[in-house]
Design brief:
With about 350 residues, this protein is of the alpha/beta class. The chain contains 16 helices and 11 strands. The longest helix is centred in the N-terminal third of the chain and has 30 residues. The relative contact order is 0.15.
């Protein structure tokens, strides 16, 4: 008996090899190697996102992670972590750049991480969602992707957005530019946001999001600006009475992958990531646009205590063109002309 055991133990690798050759899948299953093979082939792709479901982008990318796992038959193990892994936009992007995680995005801080994106945030330069997505899914987006690969070692999986920004305020509605006089409006720290508020007539107060709610409650700020989808998700109605629909800044961002991780994927896996990213992009767009109109905003926000008003968009646009556009037109000369000439 001991001799038999010794022979079996010594020849086990050969037996397994013969079972694989002769028995095909049956041999794999009989040998007990199937789980080991699956684990060896699975490539983990961790994605960190600032917010959790039901935020619009979180819904889309959580869906994408499940689709990638299913369509790759477990060869790609994309894992989505919304608001649980890394808590700040810049930290997420640093983790992607360093390769500590595979996938992430800068959320609303795109222009801080990618100054090249600042031009799209200039107030009223981007006219519509159709125009934006045709630009980003076309040659302008392709050129930016190439640039970001070379400069930041990041592969763009897709561009998406949180929609157009609207003012939220506690004391009065912002229906026309003069209503901004003296108002302290919180802005993100990218320069273009401060230039927007100051140029339109308000007083910009740069502030990280983590400080905003307490600042609004204490009166340090009079309000801020957010797309409707984020006013809902972030419960801005708890510190704000008015939502004024000004559509003043378009808010593009992008989902990225560490370039070395991207280059390590097979061609079929690269195609799968791009296909599902484009599908996730469509989901983001649908969720964002579905509430970015007066009727939908009233339906979503007024039951929660806010008053939604329509602003004089043309008046705001005229001020922006006169006071804000000239400096940015000079700064982004080549790309500016492409955007202006690009028709939806």
């Amino acid at each position: 008996m001991s001799t038999i055991m010794k022979i079996s133990s010594r020849n086990l690798p050969a037996i397994r090899r013969r079972s694989l050759v002769k028995g095909g899948m049956a041999g794999i299953l009989a040998s007990g190697l199937a789980p080991l093979v699956a684990r060896a082939e699975a490539k983990k792709l961790v994605m960190a996102h600032l917010n959790a479901v039901p935020e619009s982008a979180a819904v889309a990318f959580d869906w994408q992670a499940k689709e990638v796992r299913e369509r790759s038959h477990g060869e790609l193990d994309m894992q989505f972590f919304g608001s649980t892994l890394i808590s700040k936009e810049l930290e997420i992007m640093n983790a992607v750049k360093s390769g500590n995680i595979a996938i992430g995005n800068p959320g609303g801080a795109a222009a801080t991480v990618f100054p090249e994106m600042g031009v799209f945030l200039v107030p009223y330069l981007v006219q519509s969602y159709d125009q934006a997505y045709k630009m980003f899914n076309g040659p302008i987006g392709d050129a930016l992707d190439k640039q970001f690969q070379e400069k930041y070692k990041l592969k763009t999986l897709c561009f998406f957005d949180y929609g157009f920004r609207h003012f939220w305020t506690a004391k009065k509605a912002i229906k026309e530019p003069r209503d901004l006089r003296g108002a302290k409006i919180r802005v993100q720290q990218a320069k273009v946001f401060g230039d927007t508020i100051n140029g339109l007539g308000g007083n910009a107060v740069p502030m990280a999001w983590g400080e905003v709610i307490s600042a609004a409650k204490s009166g340090v700020i009079d309000g801020g600006d957010l797309p409707i989808v984020n006013q809902i998700a972030l419960k801005i109605y708890e510190v704000s009475k008015y939502c004024s629909m000004t559509f003043h800044n378009y808010g593009p961002t992008l989902n990225t992958m560490n370039l070395a991780v991207w280059e390590g994927l097979s061609d079929p896996h690269k195609k799968l990531m791009l296909d599902t990213s484009r599908e996730a992009q469509s989901k983001c767009r649908e969720l964002t646009e579905s509430v970015d109109n007066f009727a939908a905003a009233k339906r979503e926000l007024e039951p929660k205590g806010m008053i939604v008003v329509e602003a004089d968009v043309d008046a705001f646009k005229r001020v922006a063109q006169e006071k804000i556009w000239p400096a940015y037109k000079q700064q982004y000369a080549g790309l500016w002309d492409q955007i202006v000439e690009f028709k939806a």
